[in-house]
Amino acid sequence: MILALALALASSLATSVAFLLKQRGAVLAPSVRVRHPLRSAVALFRSRWFALGWVVAVGAWGLHVGALALAPLSVVQAVLAAGLVFLAVLAERFFGFALGRRQWIGVIITAIGLAIIALTVGPRGDDAPGYALTALIVVECTVFVLATGLAVLSSHLPTLRARQGLFLGAASGALFGVSDIALKFLTHAVGGGVLELVSPWTFAALAASVVAFYASARGLQIGPGVEVIALTAVAANLTAIIGGILVFRDSIGAGPLGISGRMIAFGLVIAGAALIPAPVRVAYRPARE
After folding, report:
1. Is the Cβ–Cβ distance between 273 and 233 less than 8 Å?
2. What is the pLDDT of residue 125?
3. Statement: residue 220 has pLDDT above 90
4. 3-state secondary structure 178-233
5. Which of 150, 163, 234, 279 can pair with 171 through a Cys bridge, CB separation 3.0 to 4.6 Å?
């Protein structure tokens, strides 16, 4: 479990760095166009900042998969919420964003929630957790449809268009969460052989990741960077934690005290994350490549 938590923490740090690098590159790239997905992807990767961010993101993904293979999904995602703490510090110190008191309060609340989660981790049995296949299908399909629909509607409805970047960030985060749920399933399925990777859940993970890639890139282009990244992280964590509990029957604690502490901690993480996406000013203005 300690190794899994360390991998998840390293993944959260790398993910924050990756998102900030990709945001810097995305604002320099031509606008992402749904009608021209390949051209948009090529244009994004021509930005050296975005490409570098993607390389870091791949490393973070590898650490993430390693953590998922060793620990319950809800625990991994809760630790990944530490990325919000890293995000706040890195954004202000190295990427030119200025965070206010509200954002730092959110960081502190999130850190407290993560500390409680670490202290209330219950024992894990030797057997892999059972799956609620019906819940897996319902959660995957429902979140995928809703998140994709939100991404599409945000560009067409006038009431949503003013905050399109934020909605795209939330939608991409939910889709990343869908991908995490599918990946968690595959980390157990692969125990039956490599051929188990030829699965609908592999397609689900890839499909969710592709849609999330474009939604996230567009959100980073048109929305306030820290807010978009924070909403992406919150949506991804919330989706995956719920999936871990409903689908993989992850424990929410050992005994009344552990359960109460874990539930309070999850609430603190979400509440703290909600305080971070507040208006920020960007001091850094990179020249176009």
Report:
1. yes
2. 46
3. yes
4. HHHHHHHHHHHHHHHCHHHHCCHHHHHHHHHHHHHHHHHHHHHHHCCHHHHHHHHH
5. 150
